[in-house]
């Protein structure tokens, strides 16, 4: 984990800590309680199986009609992200990132998918999901033991390498 992110989580007055704070969740196991699962906390408590998340991204990767994504929205997701005016440094994560409509886009420290059309997001402990519209692939990795990588958890990365290994012109995954 990046040092700035860890320090931000430890300081109750920092934006990072406030962004990740979930009321009445004192430890990760608390997130298993139904009363916390039903509360919608954007960018914080998406819960699903690897199969369901991969299916969602697969629908998005193949046009999105099944889940109600319009052509305009899909175009915005697959186009190059507009860089933020004040730089790429994310004030919550304390790393350089590139987003489009709330999803990560590939960037030099974290390349995924077969091209820059891909979009997705990582989650706590090493989970990751993405859509690759060029290949029509939806991918998700979730685990039952939290890891300590923000991007490219070795367990997830090994699976992504295998997935894209035989795809012609696919770029290296990081």
Features:
3-stranded antiparallel beta sheet; single chain; 174 residues; alpha+beta; globular; 6 helices
Structural features, described:
With 174 residues, the chain is an alpha+beta fold. It folds into two domains: 1-47, no CATH class; 48-174, no CATH class. 29% of the residues lie in helices and 10% in strands. The chain has six helices and five strands, in the order H-H-H-H-H-E-E-E-E-E-H. The chain has a three-stranded antiparallel β-sheet. A hairpin with a 5-residue loop joins strand 3 (119-122) and strand 4 (128-132). The longest helix is centred in the N-terminal third of the chain and has 12 residues, at 50-61. It is globular, with a radius of gyration of 16 Å. The protein starts with a helix and ends in a 9-residue tail after the last helix. The model has no long low-confidence stretch (mean pLDDT 85).
Q: Could you list the spans in which at least 5 consecutive residues all have pLDDT below 50?
A: none
Number of strands: 5
The succession of helices and strands, N to C, reads: HHHHHEEEEEH
Dominant shape: globular
Total tally of structural domains: 2
Proportion of residues in helical segments: 25-40%
